[in-house]
Each structure stands twice: as structure tokens, then as C-alpha cells.
Amino acid sequence: MKIIGFVYRNGATEMVLKGDSCLLNGRKPFFMPDWSEEIGVTPCMILRVSRLGKEIAPKFADRYYDAVAPGEDFVALDILREAEKEGKPWTKALAFDYSLAIGEWVTGDGLQVTGDYVLSPEEAISEASKVMTIRQGDLIYIQAKQAPKPVQKEDVLRIEVEGEEKLYCKIK
């Protein structure tokens, strides 16, 4: 399984990869890593890929995912700034264990995604499939178009969809 992300940084959209150890689900808490002084979080939507595809045109992309979940993408802001300044990869800042909290899946025909995200689901699937083959079970996450919000121990992250809590994550 691949986790392909589209993040918003300095006014541009960047594609990043995360390993499966980055997933945090089941209402489990997020533990602040001791190697970073500043953790931030950005809301995102997560798509579950439902079939194999390569070079998918945006107009057909809705056929390639079967569920959407709300998410929170954690980033080590101090490490990211240092990596950007030195021209180094962002991996340590973005792809650490449990850095992507995932809420409950929403399924069904005509899945509706609302909000100001860096790409639409169709654009994200199309862009990801230009670079690599997407497979059933892969996840594609798309950040909201906003700067990361700093989090502290004891904060609680909640996302509701149509009045129902779909994501809950306590920061420890």
C-alpha cells in the first residue's frame, strides 16, 4: 500500500509519499515526538483507491476511489523549515510514524467532497497516476489550502461531517 499526499507549501502544491507506519486510526492519541519542538497539523481528505490505474484522465478519476475519510496531517514545522532552508528532503518532517490521522470512511454513490483543498479528488488521482501506478488499497490524501496550525499536548482534534463526528484525536 502506498500513501500519496498532496500538500500545500509556500503557495504551491507538492506531491509526497508516506509509509504505512504513518497511519493513525481508531481514535488513538497522537504522541508528540521528542525530536521536534513544533508540531503543526493541517486538515485533509483521504481517498481510498478501489482499482488499478495509470495515466488516468480527470474525467474518469471518480471511478478509481470508493471512499473518503477526513484526516489530519501532522508536520514537524521546525524540521521542515530547516530542510527547506538547506535544500534537503522533507521526509523527516512529513513522513514520521503516526503523522496522518484518519477518520471514519464515508462510502456510497456520488461521494461529495467540499472545502478548499489543494486539488480536487479527480485532479489528485490523475496527478498521482501520471507518476506511478495506483492500486486498490492505496490512499491519496489532499491537504486543505491553509497553513498548518500548531498543536500542543492535551489539544483535541475533531472533525464532523454532516453533524457526525468522524475523526477524534487527542494530542499527548
Description:
This protein is mainly beta and 172 residues long. The protein has a single domain, classed as Fumarylacetoacetase-like, C-terminal domain (Fumarylacetoacetate hydrolase, domain 2, Alpha-Beta Complex). 15% of the residues lie in helices and 37% in strands. It contains 3 helices and 11 strands. The protein has helices at residues 77-86, 91-94, 121-131; strands spanning 3-9, 12-18, 23-24, 39-49, 65-76, 100-102, 106-107, 139-143, 149-150, 156-161, 164-170. Strands 1, 2, 3, 4, 5, 6, 7, 8 and 9 form a 9-stranded mixed β-sheet that branches. Strands 10-11 form a two-stranded antiparallel ribbon. The longest helix is centred in the last third of the chain and has 11 residues, at 121-131. The two termini are 28 Å apart. The mean pLDDT is 95.
Short description:
With 172 residues, the chain is mostly beta strands.
Helix/strand layout:
Elements: E1 3-9, E2 12-18, E3 23-24, E4 39-49, E5 65-76, H1 77-86, H2 91-94, E6 100-102, E7 106-107, H3 121-131, E8 139-143, E9 149-150, E10 156-161, E11 164-170
Parallel strand pairs: 1-8, 3-6
Antiparallel strand pairs: 1-2, 4-5, 4-8, 4-9, 5-6, 5-7, 10-11
